[in-house]
Design brief:
mainly beta, Immunoglobulin-like, four-stranded antiparallel beta sheet, about 60% strand
Length: about 90
């Protein structure tokens, strides 16, 4: 499974693109460097194929993030596949 994100660093948003080889339940969350979940982008079953999620650097309450390092975590089917990567927001 391929996961890509761009641009990095980003402002005001970044795109996370991933390819599912087969249908599955996908969870894609954004965390700060302290491990606090800031945003839930995807929590649903998805078909096989390419998918795109866009993070606008806001938390679940619409508050904008400050410059710094953030982490996305993508989990498929409860952990049969997972990917974690750092992203940098520059304002």
């Amino acid at each position: 499974m391929a996961v890509r994100y761009f641009p990095n660093p980003f402002n005001p948003e970044t795109t996370i693109r991933y390819d599912l080889p087969e249908a599955g339940t996908v969870v894609l969350d954004i965390y700060n460097v302290s491990g606090q979940q800031l945003r839930s982008l995807v929590q649903e079953g998805q078909d096989a194929g390419e998918h795109v999620a866009i993070w606008d650097a806001q938390d679940n309450n619409g508050r904008p993030g400050s410059s710094g390092i953030y982490i996305y975590r993508l989990i498929v089917d409860g952990g049969t596949f997972s990917a974690t990567q750092r992203m940098v927001l520059l304002k």
